[in-house]
Amino acid sequence: MSQQPLLDIEDLKITVGGNAVIEDVSLGIAPGEMVGLVGESGCGKSVTALSIMRLLAEPPMRVAGGRILFENEDVLEYSERALEKLRGDRISMIFQEPMTSLNPVFTIGEQIAETLLLHREISSSAAEARAVELLERVGIPGPSAALRRYPHQLSGGQRQRVMIAMALACEPKLLIADEPTTALDVTVQAQILDLIDDLRRETGMAVLLITHDLGVVSQYCDRVAVMYGGRIVETASAEDLFGHPRHRYTEALLRTIPASNPPGTDLPAIPGAVPPPGRRPSGCAFHPRCHAVVEECPRLVPDLVGGTHRARCWNPVA
Amino acid sequence: MSLLQVNKLSKTYPNLGGPPVQAVSEVSLHVDEGEVLGVVGESGCGKSTLGRSLLRLIEPSSGEVIFAGKSLTRLSQTEMKAVRRDMQVIFQDPFGSLNPRHTVGYIIGEPLIVHRRGNKAERRRRVEELLGIVGLPQDAADRYPHEFSGGQRQRIAIARALALDPKLLIADEAVSALDVSIQSQIINLIADLQKRLSLAIIFISHDLSVIRHVSDRIAVMYLGRIVEVGPAEEIMQAPKHPYTQALLSAVPRPGVARTERIKLAGELPDPTDPPSGCAFHTRCPKVMDVCRLERPDLVQRQIDGHPTPGEAACHLYPA
What we know:
The structure holds two protein chains of two kinds.
Chain A: E1 7-16, E2 19-29, E3 34-38, H1 45-52, E4 61-70, E5 73-74, H2 80-86, E6 91-94, H3 98-101, H4 108-119, H5 124-137, H6 143-146, H7 156-168, E7 174-178, H8 186-203, E8 206-211, H9 214-220, E9 223-228, E10 231-237, H10 238-243, H11 248-256, E11 310-311
Parallel strand pairs in A: 3-8, 3-9, 6-7, 7-8
Antiparallel strand pairs in A: 1-2, 1-4, 4-5, 9-10, 10-11
Chain B: E1 4-13, E2 21-31, E3 36-40, H1 47-54, E4 62-67, E5 70-71, H2 77-84, E6 87-90, H3 104-114, H4 120-133, H5 150-162, E7 168-172, H6 180-196, E8 200-205, H7 208-214, E9 217-222, E10 225-231, H8 232-237, H9 242-250, H10 289-293, E11 299-301, E12 310-312
Parallel strand pairs in B: 3-8, 3-9, 6-7, 7-8
Antiparallel strand pairs in B: 1-2, 1-4, 4-5, 9-10, 10-12, 11-12
Helix pairs in contact in B: 3-4, 3-5, 4-5, 5-6
């Protein structure tokens, strides 16, 4: 990153009942950049994303340390009122299941206009005109008629397009997309990801893409951060990370997927399971599942070290 | 002779106040003993309805299912129960399919009780054996499903499915809910069991890379019909149907560039009002006039520059 970062998370730690859910999380995103945050369930990727918008369930969750600088201001110090202005205006978020994020009793048009009327001083007819424009941009056929439809009248892919239209209404600087295509079919997934990618190139907004799908990250993201056991264990450009993974977990994950193996052969499986928060092993959380353990691994948490390609590993891939 | 032979199986769901939903249309397929048939398609293509119809967990509307030489279509529920010993199923959600109030030992041994196999001590021994086969510790028998992770719960479901030594296993999205690192463990387990027990498996999934890895042959479904079927490697290396081609190119793979991808417009058509002719014609990049009028049959077709004919339902190739 040569530019001044748009978002700069520094040493973020979030706890639940004394147990760390995430810790030592540092992540920067430059304007216009698409960054992938990948990991398996329970690794802390969604908690990290929610904390940026201060959408964590506090309590029981608690920010126990760190800073989240967005345009050089720490959102952790924002008042509730300042947060209202931030959410949906400068930062927007879309989720996996658009059906549960859309309100079933309001039309699509009302829901898009709501965002605009909340953040912009415009008339409702201007808001409606803008809504038509947004629906057209995200590829909803017959946008004027679509305004009057309810969420259940749309297909899954179209609902996600509507969510994107709502998220874009105020031209945010950052879009956080939490598993935006996981519930969609693969041919529709490609359409939605292409749309997000086109939009960020057009508008210069940055995107934080949270996903478990390594293939998606490798095809769409500039940079990638891999999480395991509540920490970022590796971060690099997508090309470097997939070409030369350095952390043993990233290496194992890439090797285990069926696409990396000849059909019918035994997959190089990773033994054991992802440990839940509160039962994470000492030292490097991955060490009980790792095939390249050295003396330090069970004892000490390694630092995230390196230049542009950084890994948190005592015995990284050469 | 095939272990399972399916002839023109259809399933129509009534739809209040509207035309019926044609979930599965005239599907014919076969599975040989010890063979893995992968069934791939997107949501709503009818793959799960197909799997359930084979076992008559859903009653098919028409067509015939022949298992081990016996037609299942007209069997009574009692006769069907006997057949189901040899045909078992595992589902996507190992939480939803395991009774939370029973111990794992009871869950795995229950099919033995239902089918009156052995006495209590023999059943206990069989449960221990099955726990070993699927890689669970012996003390798992006295614990409850909620004490296990998703991957372990799927192992429990597999052990239960194997209790009666079935000949055919239907795995419906059996690894789709699992994390990447756990998914490969379960794929390895299923593949290993398939070889050791010479099981025939119908592996239903939306995930092409998983399907490719486990299958001998692959059937691709679109809107209730099989549009292409053939040996796994042939389908993956030289897909014939434009839908198979698009499906293959849409799967993002690490390290593979996103160039030259076939882009499909739109989504799956409404199954209450399927398009005329070939159901894929509304999204097909190679659509011709005939596609809108005439439905292509799934038959052997000669493909240009290809030594052997392939089975596809597409007008691009002469039958």
